[in-house]
Amino acid sequence: MPLPLHELAALGTATCWAMTGILATDAVRVLGAFHFNLYRQVFVALLLGLIVWAGGSFAGLDPATVLVLAVSGVVGILLGDTFNFAAVARLGPRRAGAVFATNAPMAAILGWALLGETLSLQAVAGIALTALGVAVAILGRPRADAHRFEQTRGTLAIGLMFGLGAALGQATGSLIARPVMVAGIDPWLASLIRVGASGLAMGLLAATPLAPRAEGTASLRVLALTAITAVIGLLLGMTLFLYALEGSKTGIIATLSATSPVMILPLLWLRTGQRPTLISLTGALLAVAGLALIFLR
Predict the structure, then answer these.
(1) pLDDT tens, 76-87?
(2) Tens digits of per-residue pLDDT, 97-106?
(3) What is the residue range of 145's domain?
(4) In b/e form, how buried is each residue of 259-291, taking b as 16+ CB within 10 angstroms?
(5) Cα 70 vs. chain centroid, distance in angstroms?
């Protein structure tokens, strides 16, 4: 059996996004979701530009491909990531990640309805079991002395709306990019176009009175956290995700990348010193069983 590189790349994406959720929480609460997302995109666009220039990947690029990836970037990164970080600021990384994980069933349904993607019964069972595990993993309530990462700020309903908006943006952006990625474009170049288009749109918006204001002062620590999350979440995570889309169906890749709420449990344990609840651990085991069905299909 050949090594499932594209599925493994999707799990790598989930790991990157889980790390981003933890590292980003304090910076997002200082800068606000909009400016945090803008700064990280500008930083990553410069890095990606250097990588693509060094690799000479611009050859054969056509305007139609650029347009599709640009639209995918605006929908998936500008809208999806901004809404996601707004949810992180209000709900904390664990709950926000759980709501964001609903992008998996959204992507599976959209892929079936719009791209004609079909899945085997075992793959459907694996997706369902993984989604159930992710949902159970985040049901465990935090302790009374919960770390600040587990605390809710503002209205819960607004945080949930941001999370669902992020999930829909991610699912739609994935769906738009999938045909282009299947055609074989270099993932680094695709990431550059998506991040560059989103960053340009956010930069133009930032120059207007409609742009949200930063909620605090950007200290050196906040800027360092922003840069680190940019490298992990956008440079590595998003490129791995686009590579994964080249070789597997949207619903499967979205499900695997949506396991970040499970990946985040041991990371939160290490970061906060508070052990996950039995319910959360049970959900993690269910998600692992679902992943096994997907990998062994």
Answers:
(1) 999 999 999 898
(2) 777 877 877 8
(3) 5-295
(4) bbbbbbbebbeebeeeebbeebbbbbebbeebb
(5) 17
